[in-house]
Amino acid sequence: MLRRALPARPEARRILLGTLFSAVGRGLTLPFLFIYLTDVRGLTDTRAGLVIGWFGAVTLALSPLAGTFIDRFGARRVVLPCLVIEAIGVGSLALVDSTASAFGVMTLIAVGSSAIWAGQNTILASLTDDGERQRVFGLNFALLNLGIGTGGLISGAVVDVARPVTFEVIYLLDAVSYLTPALILLTLPHVGRRPVAATGATAADRRTGGYLTVLRD
Prior knowledge:
Elements: H1 2-5, H2 10-29, H3 33-40, H4 45-73, H5 75-92, H6 99-126, H7 130-156, H8 164-186, H9 203-207, H10 211-216
């Protein structure tokens, strides 16, 4: 059954592999951020909640801009730097020692997160045909959940609030996990580039589309 769900193109399979690696890294840290900020770094519950809420707000605010950049420059040019920014951000969480530094690091992570998921889905869509796309995207979400669950199980058996180094290690591993899909994408130089307009397309044709078109649907 898994073999039938795999996409035909090897490039798409490698993108899915990158999704799995980054999801494992996300699972290592996702369940423990609040505990890390409060019990390890000494933030109050209120400040830790504000830091996490700030991350969500910044990501939400930047997402439409990320979509615009993906359309204009191509998913590759947006996703690659965002993966690097995300890696730097999650790795820097190991160095957080105050509320101000937590806000700064979570802002950096939000900048990276704002475009990664949309950009990777855009790349995956460009590598699959209509007949397999629904199946492949289902597999993509399954791998995401598998990776997060696996990472959570691993870190749950390792982290200890009495040993801050255990948390620092999982954040550094999370950073490495985001570099993995970046390296995979670098090995696929023709993937994720901006689509070329069809020959003979008029200026009006090229201007068609946008968020208003989506809202009208």
